[in-house]
Amino acid sequence: MNEEKPRKMSLGRRLAFACGEVGDNMALNTFTFLIFTFYFAVVGIPTPIMTLGFIFWALWNAINDPLIGYLSDRTKSRWGRRIPWMIGATIPLGILMILLFTPPSTYNVNQSVFIYFMIILILFDIVYTAFNLNYNALFSEMFVDMKVRSSTGRIRIMFVLIATAFALAFPTFIIEDITNSNPANVNTTLTQYLIVGIVAAIIIFIFYFLILKWGVKDPKHISKDAETAMPFIKTLKFTLKHKSFQWFLFPALGTWLVINILPTLAPLFFTYAVGITDAELIGILLLVNLLVAALSTPLWEIIRVKKGARMSGLIGTAVWIVTVLFFAFSNTFPMALIFMIFMGFGLGGGLYFYDQCIAEIIDEDEITYGVRRSGIYYAVLNFLIRLSMILNFVIIGIVFTSTDWYNYTPNPGVDVIVGLRVLMGIYPAIVLVLSFIGLYFYPIKGAKLAENRKKLTELHKKKLGSI
């Protein structure tokens, strides 16, 4: 594709960079896996109020995410645009992982615990976005060459899945009664949730230190783009008008809707629909799913190299659609295990295309406007992902209230179990079908991709010559 010879990027630097995924996904997946079950089943906040809280949280992101992305693109410092934000977020994020699981009371004792819940949601999102957005922006800026980007992406996805596997499995070995099926032991359950939060905080501190010390470097020829950054309204307008980005939103939002709803409801689904009362077995199922996804990553890289990132996503999404439907009707541990294995392949493909495609979109934008605006793209994407999560929580709220699960009670009826199966199977399948359609029409492929690579190489030669 007539690319310049890639600048040397050692394996050690790439591994250190991927360490950011461990802390990042430990935070995100601990939050996603436990936050709904904790505040619904343990703290006791009713379903409609929980839904209202998550809607307010998502609306907050309408301000938070685009603003942080815009400010990041305009940041000027001796460390570049991204690194100061990552440093500033590290300690607060670790502290918030602990505060997530230290509510002042339960809802039936003091209803003001809902205010605490809302404050924690908002603060968590501010500091998580400050790190995650800038970390992802650096990926597209540090690793521009296609081969280096692809190999680094493979390492990242493996770190993502290993960290996610730990984040989802570890709590099941610590928290004996994850759904609080015996409310008499609520104090013990609260303490065990807190232990999980403390361990998550320690892991975040360790792995964020590794990436900040040895893994990140803001390229000077790209960080200079802060000097010519567009005004906020203009940059937001150009981002939302980008045709490739518009098509990418379908699979991106669909992937994260499914990724978020499955762990959110996993404790309740496995306990009451599948009949698995042993929390450790739930952890094993989640672990197997994610390990298979990690092991499938080399396959998706091969497909990406030969056929492009789009094809990896198409195949992965197709596998995911079929298996998620069968998985939702599991009623024994062996059945659930078999379907979690096959779902792992779909998950691996769904995650792999995501990083590669958004980097291609940012490349195309830089070719068009001459300025690399990674921050605003990840900001808008993060915002839309959070906003789309309103749909998840609204649907969960509708299903739970319509099946008389307004307040949490152990041993729900048949209607609740049917509702859980719909939420874990039919709903995700519909979302993934829409994702498949969006990927099918995604335009950066074949000759268009080759042309973009050539133009980007020429542009970066020009930028390097100017410093």
Structure in words:
The structure is a single chain. The protein is mostly helical and 467 residues long. Mean pLDDT is 89; it is low at 1-6. The protein is globular, with a radius of gyration of 22 Å. The relative contact order is 0.15. The protein is built from 16 helices and no strands. The chain has one domain (11-465): MFS general substrate transporter like domains (Growth Hormone, Chain: A), CATH 1.20.1250. The longest helix is centred in the C-terminal third of the chain and has 37 residues, at 333-369.
Which key features would you list for this structure?
mainly alpha
Structural domain count:
1
What percentage of amino acids are in beta strands? under 5%
Secondary-structure element order, as H and E? HHHHHHHHHHHHHHHH
> Would you state the CATH class?
Mainly Alpha
CATH architecture, please?
Up-down Bundle
Write down how many β-strands occur, each being a DSSP E stretch of 2 or more residues: 0
- Biggest pleated-sheet summary: none
Q: What is the end-to-end distance?
A: 25 Å
For the CA atoms, what is the radius of gyration?
22 Å
User: What would the CATH topology be?
Assistant: Growth Hormone, Chain: A
Average of per-residue pLDDT values: 89
Shape: globular
Count of helices? Answer: 16
- CATH homologous superfamily label: MFS general substrate transporter like domains
The chain-level structural class is: mainly alpha
Helix content: over 70%
Low-pLDDT stretches are 1-6
